[in-house]
Design goal:
Layout: E1 45-49, E2 57-64, E3 67-71, H1 78-87, E4 93-97, E5 109-111, E6 143-146, E7 173-177, E8 191-198, E9 201-204, H2 212-221, E10 224-228, E11 240-243, E12 255-259, E13 275-280, H3 290-295, E14 303-306, E15 313-320, E16 323-327, H4 334-343, E17 349-353, E18 365-367, E19 398-401, E20 412-416, E21 422-431, E22 434-440, H5 447-456, E23 461-466, E24 481-483, E25 517-521, E26 527-529, H6 531-537, E27 539-544, H7 549-553, E28 569-574, E29 577-581, E30 597-599, E31 604-606, E32 612-617, E33 623-629, E34 638-639, E35 661-665, E36 673-675, E37 682-690, E38 705-712, E39 717-724, H8 730-733
Parallel strand pairs: 3-5, 16-18, 22-24
Antiparallel strand pairs: 1-2, 2-3, 2-6, 4-6, 7-8, 8-9, 8-13, 10-13, 11-12, 14-15, 15-16, 15-19, 17-19, 20-21, 21-22, 21-25, 23-25, 26-29, 27-28, 28-36, 29-35, 30-31, 32-33, 32-37, 34-35, 37-38, 38-39
Subcellular location: Chromosome; Endoplasmic reticulum; Nucleus; Secreted, Extracellular space, Extracellular matrix, Basement membrane
GO biological process, one term: chromatin organization
Cofactor: Cu cation
Length: 747
């Protein structure tokens, strides 16, 4: 059955991040010369195998004399890695790894003590002990990481025609190309001819022996799932068929099939080129579609991504026993990462990330040594080791998934900035039947809107949001305002998905120098408050007004304290706050030190007037008491092992919280409380919000809230069930009525 809708587009490569220009045909490249090897050089083939985290890395394996073997790491060098990568069709080598980083191989160790200069056309030309002569074990198997970019014009040369089924596919590029020319500008790609670039020419694949497994891999590379059919056309055919199992994350991990038999009229045996029809995941689906509703049932998800800058990337978190936790990166590879990506409605994994590279999580580590086959419906179905004693959040696993090429970046640009990461925001919009560039009204423009801009452009996280851009000379022709009233939640994929005025523009301040601007950054901090510390340090104190003069001046008491005598008492709910920076960059106050406010009573500078909010709610969600805390001093109280403190408030020092450190506001300092003098005994919900006004950008705001159940009997007070926002399942969150949302509602 044909698709209800078909968008077809000439899609750029997955091998090159920047892709190709949208024009067709492709630009001319320097012609690749296949190596002409002397007769006495052994004929070998290479592949990258093992526990890969990207398709262009792995254990170096060599096919010689009818069997696969490995290379020893003795005397291996960056020059040898360059020869390996170029032989595989990559422009360069990024790095190499000794000691079987990608797992131990099998078979002979074909090369030992390699001494390459980097100029050789094949590893077999490098001086060594001699092929097959080695005193190494497989614990010394060497691995390489090759560049993402492929050699222009690269052509696969098969030196071993009798063993073709043992070889991995090595081509310059892959794309899905529109069947009808009228569809070539539509996005995202969902249907078209599968074409590979070999020897500088795009070629189609004969559908002899083509299977749904092959289609599954191709669609996955382009961020989708599969449908399949074929149509006729006179193509130029590639010389080989394709043999995928369906579990591969990338075509380069599939095996070559048999050489195809061409007949005189240029067709293949069955006379048809391969065509795939793919379906983008639910996040990219057009709104009302019956097919999508059937395919994707809305249930409590078992896996989610956190801390990523763009759609389809993040730290992997799984739900177990009602609580969200992370996955330890031991044995974490592209196959397991692909199961996560497919479960979330994306394509295959582009990269499996380790070492907490997308920030550290909180709570339990639920899974370790995950081993997926690639066909599981959920990561929770994969075999894993329940023993996580040796794992910490420094080893949290993450993913980057392949997503459909939606063309979002082409409708937005930053203009006039000193680098590609900053500038005035300019939007491409339709006016009077033509597409024009224009600016965005800066009224109400803030960090949440900037976050969406940076995400849409693939520039990471927002660093700043600007309401004036006179210092950035944008395109004069784009000075006019074309978008106003923009309000984003911060999770949208594009600025056009945010609330805005549409065609009814309202912007009294105008565009030009007053237009909205942003600066972006690859990394961002992520503040997380430790809920156990709140629970363990809570107590109640009755304190006389004459000892609360400074706190009164800084409005840290309830309004009823305005008219009470100095010898009266205020009842204070006190607790400690331990605020961790689990992100990828330091948390620093928005204001520079020249604009910090000196408070003479407390004898310190406030770098943020409202850093945290403390609120007590009744069970129906009505606020009954509140407190707030200025950042008296943002500093590193303690740090994880191996991390040095960077920020200290003494002597007007720099303020901030370093990655891997935490700032502790002790229960016994001023304003670290809620004034509950006027609160009646009963059951309540206590809530703490860090960075409530989103003044400082963070990679994840959902964990900025801590919620606790609270019981007050008039004499004593207890906190229990304290947890971070979003750390429990939906059913448990329902026990906190009126406070379901993880985000603060006011702006």
């Amino acid at each position: 059955e044909g698709p209800e809708w078909i968008f077809i587009y000439l899609v750029s490569a997955q091998y090159e991040y920047l892709g190709y220009p949208p024009s067709y045909p492709d630009p001319e490249h320097e012609h690749y010369q296949a190596p002409q090897l002397p007769a006495d050089v052994p004929r070998i083939q290479l592949r990258l195998a093992g526990d890969k985290r990207k398709h262009n890395e792995g254990r170096v394996e060599v096919f010689y004399d009818g069997q696969w073997g490995t290379m020893c790491d003795d005397d291996f060098s960056q020059h040898a890695a360059q020869v390996v990568c170029r032989e595989l069709g990559y422009v360069d080598a990024v790095s190499w790894s000794p000691s079987s980083k990608y797992g131990k191989g099998e078979g002979p160790i074909w090369f030992d003590n390699l001494h390459c200069t980097g100029k050789e056309r094949t590893v077999a030309q490098c001086p060594s002990n001699g092929i097959g002569i080695s005193d190494c074990k497989h614990t010394e198997d060497v691995g390489v990481v090759c560049s993402d970019k492929r050699i222009p014009g690269f052509k696969f040369v098969n030196f071993l025609p009798n063993h073709v089924e043992s070889l991995d596919i090595q081509v310059e590029d892959v794309r899905i190309r529109a069947i009808l020319s009228s569809y070539r500008k539509r996005v995202p790609v969902t249907e078209g001819y599968v074409e590979i670039k070999d020897g500088g020419r795009w070629k189609q694949i004969c559908n002899a022996d083509w299977t749904p497994h092959n289609s599954r891999v191709i669609c996955g590379m382009f961020g989708s799932v599969t449908r399949m059919f074929a149509r006729r056309r006179k193509p130029t055919y590639w010389d080989f068929s394709v043999n995928c199992t369906g579990a591969e994350a990338h075509l380069s991990s599939c095996k070559l099939g048999q050489q195809t038999e061409a007949v005189t009229n240029g067709t293949c045996v069955k006379g048809l080129p391969v065509v795939v029809s793919c379906v983008p995941g639910r996040a990219f689906a057009p709104t009302p579609m019956t097919g999508f509703r059937k395919a994707f049932r809305q249930e409590q998800p078992l896996v989610r991504l956190r801390g990523g800058a763009i759609v389809g990337e993040g730290r992997v978190e799984v739900l177990k026993n009602g609580e969200w936790g992370t996955i330890c990166d031991d044995s974490w590879n592209l196959g397991s990462a692909t199961v996560v990506c497919r479960e979330l409605g994306y394509g295959t994994a582009k990269e499996a990330l380790n070492g907490g590279r997308l920030g550290q999580g909180m709570g339990p580590v639920h899974m370790n040594e995950v081993q997926c086959s690639g066909f599981e419906k959920s990561i929770t179905e994969c075999p894993f080791n329940k023993e996580t004693v040796d794992c910490s959040h420094e080893e949290d696993a993450g993913v980057r998934c392949n997503i459909p090429a939606m063309g979002f970046q082409e409708r937005l640009r930053l203009s006039g900035g000193r680098s590609p990461y900053e500038g005035r925001v300019e939007v491409l919009t339709e006016r009077n039947g033509s597409l024009v560039w224009g600016t965005v009204c800066s009224e109400g423009w803030g960090i949440m809107e900037a976050m969406v801009v940076c995400r849409q452009l693939g520039l990471g996280f927002a660093k700043n949001a600007f309401q004036e851009t006179w210092y950035w000379a944008g395109q004069v022709s784009a000075d006019a305002v074309v978008m106003s009233g923009v309000r984003c939640s911060g999770t949208e994929m594009t600025l056009s998905h945010c609330l805005h005025h549409g065609e009814n523009l309202q912007c009294p301040r105008g565009g030009g120098r007053h237009a909205a601007g942003v600066s972006c950054s690859d990394t961002a901090p992520d503040l997380v408050l430790n809920p156990q510390v709140v629970e363990q340090t809570t107590y109640m104190e009755d304190r006389p007004m004459f000892m609360l003069q400074c706190a009164y001046e800084e409005k840290c008491l309830a309004s009823t304290s305005n008219s009470v005598p100095a010898n009266s008492y205020r009842r204070l709910l006190r607790f400690s706050s331990q605020i961790h920076n689990n992100g990828q960059s330091d948390f620093k106050p928005k204001a520079n030190r020249e604009s910090w406010v000196w408070h003479d009573c407390h004898r310190h500078y406030h770098s943020m007037e409202v850093f945290t909010l403390y609120d007590l709610y009744s069970l129906n969600g009505t606020k009954v008491a509140e407190g707030h805390k200025a950042s008296f001093c943002l500093e590193d109280s303690e740090c994880d092992e191996g991390i040095e403190k960077k920020y200290e408030c003494a002597n007007f020092g720099d303020q901030g919280i370093t990655v891997g450190c935490w700032d502790t506001y002790r229960h016994d300092i001023d304003c670290q409380w809620v004034d509950i003098t006027d609160v009646s005994p009963g059951d309540y919900i206590f809530r703490i919000v860090i960075n409530p006004n989103y003044e400082v950008p963070e990679s994840d705001y959902s964990n900025n809230i801590v919620k606790c159940r609270c019981r007050y009997d008039g004499h004593r007070i207890w906190m229990y069930n304290c947890h971070n926002g979003g750390s429990l399942n939906e059913e448990t969150e329902q026990q906190f009525p009126g406070l379901i949302s993880n985000q603060v509602t006011h702006r």
